[in-house]
UniProtKB/TrEMBL annotation:
It holds the Pfam family AMP-binding. Residues 522-599 form the Carrier domain. It comes from Conidiobolus coronatus (strain ATCC 28846 / CBS 209.66 / NRRL 28638) (Delacroixia coronata). It comes from the Eukaryota. PANTHER family: ENZYME, PUTATIVE (JCVI)-RELATED (PTHR43439:SF2), PHENYLACETATE-COENZYME A LIGASE (PTHR43439). InterPro entries: ACP-like_sf, Adenylate-forming_Reductase, AMP-dep_synth/lig_dom, ANL_N_sf, FAR_NAD-bd, NAD(P)-bd_dom_sf, PP-bd_ACP. Keywords: Coiled coil, Phosphopantetheine, Phosphoprotein. The keyword Phosphoprotein applies. Residues 592-619 form a coiled coil. The keyword Signal does not apply. Transmembrane segments: none annotated. This is Acetyl-CoA synthetase-like protein.
Amino acid sequence: MDFYIPASERFIDLLKYNSDNYVAKTSLYLQNTLFANLNENERPVIAIISNNSSDYMFYGLSLMLLNIVPLHLSTRLNEASYLHLLKLGKASGILVSDEFSDIGLALKTKLEHKVELIEMENLDYVSMLSNELNDSEIENMSKFATFTNQGNELAYYVHSTGSTSLYPKLISIANKVLFSQTSRALTDTPVYPIPESRLSPLPLYHTGGQLFNLHMPIRWCQHIIAPPNIKGEILSGSIILELLNCVKFDIIKWLPKLLIEFVEHCNAIPYELGWAKLINWGGLSEIGGAALPSEYISKFLENGQKFRFYFGSSEVGILGYSQVVSKVEGCRFIRFPNDFKFFMSPYDKDQGIYELVVKKEEKGLFCSEDDYKTKDLFKVHSWEPRAVAEYHSRCDDVLVHVTGEKTNPLPMENTLNKSPLIQCSAILGKNHTLNRALIQLNWREVELTGWDKSINLINEQVDLVNKSSPSHSRLMPNCVHILDKGQELLVTIKGNIIRQANYNLYKHMMDDFKADNVLTPANTASKLDLIAELVTKALNLPQQIDTNNDFFALGMDSLSALVVVKKLQQLFPLTTLNVSLVYKLKTVLNLMKYLEDTLEVLEDTVESIQSRVDAMILKYIQRFSNYNTAKAIELNRRVVLVVGSNGSLACNLIHSLLHRSDIDKVIGIIRGAEFSDKSNHQVNIMREKGLFIHQRVLHKLQCFSADMHLSSFNLPASVYQDICDNVTEVTQVGWRMNFLNSLEDFEDCIETTSNLLEFCLQNPKNPKIFNFISTIAPTVPTYKIEYNGIIPETPTSGKITNLNSCTGYGLSKLVSEQICYQVAKTKNLPVNVFRVGELSGDQSLGQWNVKEFLPLLIRAIIKLKVYPNLSSKSISWVPIDLAAKSLADLGHFKIQNPELYTIVNPQKSEWK
């Protein structure tokens, strides 16, 4: 292995033999000069505070050779963190370079236990190499360099950045972990020795700096460039450019902070002195650490650079690299090493987000009794032949709202912080309905700009955040809080927001919808315009909506409806408006009429609901008047069409069907405006849910996107004809879930049921079995007293008997059930209706959808700090995979009469 060591303002080549001699000589120098009073029978801990330098590197290696444990401390720590780590590590000495001697002295006086302050003298490399070690020196040094328990011996200490805690965590690196992590091959075809030379300006106090700037190159015999000794300075962009002039190397390993500084330095100097040098270099950049803003990536690419990202953690080391890329798209896709022992645990299946979990068999800095949950979240893009994923965020950062929806606050904060008026910002919202932004101003810039103009510019920055955020994550005007001049956000030494601590400190500012924050639109000509502007802002729309626009056609959801209600309650204090009424009124005009008492919203009655249900049933039953009666059928094979195949129950059903011997093919349909083959997409969705399809049955699966409301479902003629000729069963699983929409809002789902029934009747000589997946919801408003607490497993009459649970969702299922029953009776079509009870997680992974009952209940309890009285309630949840297996078993058992099955758990359990 070669080093380059700066000497007399130049770089000299140092062979492996010489570098080993340097370590030995430095060890002897430490022993004789600095540590004369060391007890050879003990393993002291010596802390090191120094900027990057070749001296730092050799001091660290020499301490280890002497069986002394180095405790590597960041130069960016505050005094409290230094004292915390020195106490935990039981340091008996502090080795400091000249520029940190004052800090070392202050720490020595404030520590409760005695420590020696040791100044890091500059090593004289020339004189150190002038003489070989004699026998007595080797013998004297070997007294310290004996190891009694090599594998479990402590190699050195580093610490975390303190990203999620007030103080950094002390991290001990054992020799066996050091060996395991530095020996792991990070490429598919590893080469020893590594032929590419590398400049690694990582800070040596950092875990990655120790492992991969120092020990991994030693392990793999790689030529590395030692950082130069620069008194009182750290490595900068200008120094990197100087190194390009005088040293040859193939790879630069960057941390984002240095790369950002380098890009800004190159932008500020003449092109030929900066970017031109990097282009002429023509090497590879490897980028790790925190997420790098895309504008810096783009600047690198504009100047012809190629790079790859790598991902690592303190506990496990470097875990994977991206491919070498020269474009932004796909540049962050990390490929994990083949021999890395891990799995991905679902975190947000709908978004394809997984938490990286390291198996306990892997050597790392975690308790080996259990698998290690890293709290690092990835978006998985493919699974075969191995996992490829893009880093998303940390579990600690993701905000889970009481609605079950999630917000990643980091990109929102990054956008806010781009404003020169904002010093720092924090997005908070965990276990709340809405996100809140705390903003710490750059008061110097505010004073130069002026207060009013500054506020307007900050509001524009908030608008930019909202335009790039999901609707449920956006910031409402009264949810942005500016801190006073004497207030500051709490951050770690790395600059990361400590969210819980900030929430505890400033929660008094964040009471929901304070009256003094009422929206007051400028230049509103009337209350009608005011309401229109209010709704427009709540929906985050670029232009003010028309007074007759349907809110829900424009994207309103329960969250934005709640915002509108709260605002209107402040503008109209006497109103009885609620979210359910917003769902009924639907337009600005109707809202205005209701608020002015010129529009009466009639209360639902049994009679009014019955009238609406009957009218909807009649509308669709009339379509079947011209269809012929179906003939009895005998099935020798099964080809199943599953409509709405991307939902959780549908995926479990498809998985169960594919592994049955009586199934020839399963065809999935996913809603989509345009036709496309979705087979791979379906496989990936199922894999994300922990459903792996055996290779021997994978050929049975096909999946397409289709529009169930268009002729031939908008499928190509050949595909549609193939489905008509071969499908034997149609199962409708997909249905929109919303308990605030009205019956009429679900008409698109009801129309899909009707269209599928017509499809099954197209050839009366060869009809298809139709399986309709319903719920127990239709039985509640049609329940009769004589049922005596038991829901009968018989078709309902469709007659409304009470107003209990008369939701649009339940009524729409009731209407579709009635259409199924009448078509089955009048047209002899084989129909099965399955009423599926409350579903739980599956029997293997047991993970619930975060939008299901139990997870939402838990979040509501946390938010409201009230626990419901469930002592009189019982539960009978069905594991989702067991429900799917039942559907697969019963779907083809059919006589020519409508059949109804209730899939519930016969064993009830009490809340404990």
